[in-house]
Each structure stands twice: as structure tokens, then as C-alpha cells.
Amino acid sequence: MATLLIVHHTPSPYCQAMFEAVVSGATDPEIEGVDVVRRPALTVSSADMLAADGYLLGSPANLGYMSGALKHAFDVCYYPCLDSTRGRPFGLYLHGNEGTEGAERAIDSITTGLGWIRAAEHVVVSGKPSKDDLEACWNLGATVAAGLMRD
């Protein structure tokens, strides 16, 4: 069975709504053979990252950058994962009130360094997530999970 690891930092109701939509998409009953594991960014370990076949990353954009919690997750896991996780798919959802570009750029830089492959377009939301935004989050979760299904 494939494993999809969702590494998230959900300090606000808006981030929580996006997280729940991503999880709902990733755990859709039509997606079979994928174990979805959720880990808060401050508790994820390199063993969690190494055991996963793909990743979904979620963060608020704070002061134009990813959350300190997600940065901590990358700091803990970067070198242990550097050569072992190349080519694995990932997806990203971000929430900010303004200035999300720096967070997106930093995460793209780190995931490029790890050799991860973007499995779907990033979902970036400013302000309160709309119905369409939450649907995009659902689609992100479903797309990354479905890409891990094995025949």
C-alpha cells in the first residue's frame, strides 16, 4: 500500500478548512490502496518522510514566508531525505492574507532541492476560502492521492 503524508500547520480556522478539504479529497472512497497519514509540521520526523511515497504540504504564509512550523519540518528532514526521496510527488496548499509569493517560492526551492515532483498546481488562498477554493483543495488531495494508486 502506498503512503501519502500530509504535513500541515493549521493555526487558523481558514487553514483548518483547507486542511479538511485536502484530507477529504485524499481519502475519497474511490481512491484505493493509499494510506493517508497526517502529521503536524512540528511533530513530523524524517522516518515519517522516508516512509511516505508522496506528500501534501500545508501552511499559512506568515510575513511573506512559510510558517516556522513547516520550515522546522524541512530543517529536521531535509538531509535524511535528500537522496532517498527524489522523484516523489508532492502538492502544496497555502493560506495568507497577503504576500504569499515568498512562501511559495521558498517551498518550491526546498522541494526542488529534494528532487520532488509537483503533482498538481499549488492552491494558494488569500482571505477567507471560497467554495471554489475549498474545491481546489479537495481536488489537490484527490489528485496527489490518486497518483499514488498502484495497479
From TrEMBL:
Residue ranges of domain NADPH-dependent FMN reductase-like in the record: 40-121
Highest rank taxon of the organism: Bacteria
InterPro entries the UniProt entry points to: Flavoprotein-like_sf, FMN_Rdtase-like_dom
GO molecular function annotation: oxidoreductase activity
Protein name (Swiss-Prot/TrEMBL): Flavodoxin-like protein
Species the sequence originates in: Mycolicibacterium brisbanense
